[in-house]
UniProtKB/TrEMBL annotation:
This is Transporter. CDD domains: SLC6sbd_u1. It comes from Orenia metallireducens. It holds the Pfam family SNF. The lineage of its organism: Bacteria, Bacillati, Bacillota, Clostridia, Halanaerobiales. SUPFAM superfamilies: SNF-like. InterPro entries: Na/ntran_symport (IPR000175), SNS_sf (IPR037272). The keyword Disulfide bond does not apply. GO terms for molecular function: symporter activity. Belongs to the sodium:neurotransmitter symporter (SNF) (TC 2.A.22) family. Keywords: Membrane, Symport, Transmembrane, Transmembrane helix, Transport. GO terms for cellular component: membrane.
Amino acid sequence: MEKNVENRDQWGSRLGFILAAVGSAVGLGNIWRFPYMVYENGGGAFLLPYFFAVLTAGIPMLVLEMGLGHKMRGSAPLAFRKIKEKYETLGWWAVLVTAVVTVYYSVIVAWAVNYMVFAVKQSWGADPNAFFFKDYLGATGFWDFGSIKTNVLLGLAVVWGITYVILYNGIKEGIEKASKIFMPLLIVLLGVMVVRGVTLPGAIEGLNHFLEPDFSVLKDYNVWVSAYGQVFFTLSLGFGIMIAYSSYLPKKSDVVNNAFITAFANCGFSFLSGFAVFGILGYMAQAQGVPINEVASGGIGLAFIVFPKAINLLPGMNSFFGILFFMSLVVAGLSSIISLVEAFTSSIMDKFKMTRKKAVTVVSLGGFLCTIVFATGLGISILDLVDHFLNNYGLAVVGLAECIILGYLWKLTTVKEHVNQVSDFKVGNWWDISIKYITSIVLGYMLIMKVKTELT
Ligand code: PHE
Ligand code: NA
């Protein structure tokens, strides 16, 4: 049966919505991006710009996206269309960005699925670097196409299969139920890793390097810009995701409070990850007799090269902690993928009046087929391009356009009145100021600088 706007799917409970929103927010960015970013940008001192960015951009934009989705009861393209027909394009840009991130995310989670299995016997051997590039990806060089790798293909099938099943079952029976399993599981996984991490010999050294504040970085505006960039990414802002998720909220929902809870829960996960990651890196540095900066890293290198090495070095239960680590990447990543694919799916459902089952089938099959190209050695080179596009233009463009359209071209007060009407917790003038002045200026500056460095 086709669903019209009146009987749009709905979350079964407030907790379900929050867990799903947190599931989207908590992802690879928390586990492999945040800790390294803190370490590189002045340690504990970085928390200052970070929290400033959370309060002046993260939470205000979350309230904005959640408020818009809730008020308009539609995914990004429909929500923007309801403001003015021509703004629909912006929604589709967000959907496009979503598609790009999905490709990126699903490949990495597929790798993590494979590595979870490799962890059982530490199949990566004594040289995880050579293993990753040569044995696993089958590439001899950066632009080597290699061959289609069965393992990666299987990993992708797992990722898309799970996503398909969850989304097929809809908001309440699918996403909400899955989030109620994924999020508690993730807390447990990370909790165990934190305890293991901080109790290893050398861990204190690692944590010192992670958090020791260097306040001189605060003079550097690039540090502030990095903080804003991380906050946007980590809260899944500028993708239309929070718009789509909130379009399924019941009429009476405390949007403002939900936004605060989502933001703080996400920060909590980031800190937990930081303690786990740097505890283990500290141990690794000590075990190898090298300084921390030789092992500290983030991203693909941390997850698929440094961590396998660290897992080899653990004093016992290596397989157990190896599986745990990759499982946490898989769980955090999958719940983000689900939100990405849902944002995409709900957009085409809204636009073409498609049923969920049909839309989900088309999108998942298409997504799976598109990502197969990454099962080759070329994958890593394309990922690099994707990462570049994404970090430089994707979310900044959408975020800035959101601020300008809602802040200047349309009445921001419409959203404000709406959220303040449905929420017990109300936003004040700081909200308008954050969106109209702080967030727009920072994003505008970010974009100009990116284009400038691109041209030189
Ligand atoms: N918020 C996710 C993270 O921190 C990234 C993400 C962005 C996921 C947008 C989904 C959509 O890893
Ligand atoms: Na996040």
